[in-house]
Write a structure and sequence with these properties.
Pfam families: GRAM. By secondary structure, the protein is an alpha+beta fold. Helices cover 30% and strands 31% of the residues. The protein has one domain (2-145, 160-173): PH-domain like, CATH 2.30.29.30. The radius of gyration is 17 Å and the shape is globular. The protein starts with a helix and ends in a 5-residue tail after the last strand.
Length: 178
């Protein structure tokens, strides 16, 4: 199971490093002008979507480091969206286990942010002043944007690594890594 899906990830998305293994796969649909039913692949550093409908391949690759926000939407449609730092927004729906996917995406985002904060060198005083100006100019905008509340039930400890694959009956496929 694991090897098949992991090979498929690397075959469909050759830009993903071969050492980066698949952690989870979800069946869902990408919302564009029409719904593209396919698979959402999660690895440590990437979120990838693939669909092949009517001989048209649709691919989306999102680096975990570029994820700005993950939001849940419409429970009836079981949808969520991912917004990237460069302003792109990708909406996915028809998850059988949206909440689990949401928690994993939030965990990826938190882990990448923590890693980048811990590995970045201290900023100079000029850079600190520039960062302060950017935060100040964005703070009024950020106050008007509704943010999802993180509670104990919808957040994951970002110190934990991704769990290995396991079998599941809820539309999500998981495999055990060796």
């Amino acid at each position: 199971c694991f090897l098949k899906h992991n090979k498929n990830l690397h075959k469909l998305f050759p830009e993903i490093p071969t050492g980066e293994n698949l952690t989870h796969i979800f069946t869902c649909a990408l919302q564009k002008e029409v719904l593209y039913h396919g698979k959402l692949f999660l690895s440590k550093n990437h979120v990838c979507f693939y669909s092949s409908v009517l001989l048209k391949d649709t691919k989306v690759v999102i680096r975990a480091s570029s994820i700005k926000e993950v939001r849940k939407h419409n429970s009836a449609l079981s949808s969520l969206s991912i917004q990237t730092a460069d302003g792109e927004k990708h909406s996915f729906m028809s998850f059988r286990n949206r909440d689990k996917c949401y928690r994993l995406l939030q965990s990826m985002r938190s882990h990448v942010q923590e890693t980048s904060l811990n590995s970045s060198p201290p900023a100079s005083s000029v850079e600190n002043d520039m960062d302060h100006d950017q935060v100040s100019s964005q703070s009024s905008f950020e106050e008007t944007v509704e943010r999802p509340r993180l509670t104990r039930s919808n957040s994951i400890n970002s110190n934990s690594s991704f769990p290995p694959f396991q079998s599941s009956s809820e539309g999500e496929r998981k495999c055990r890594s060796e």
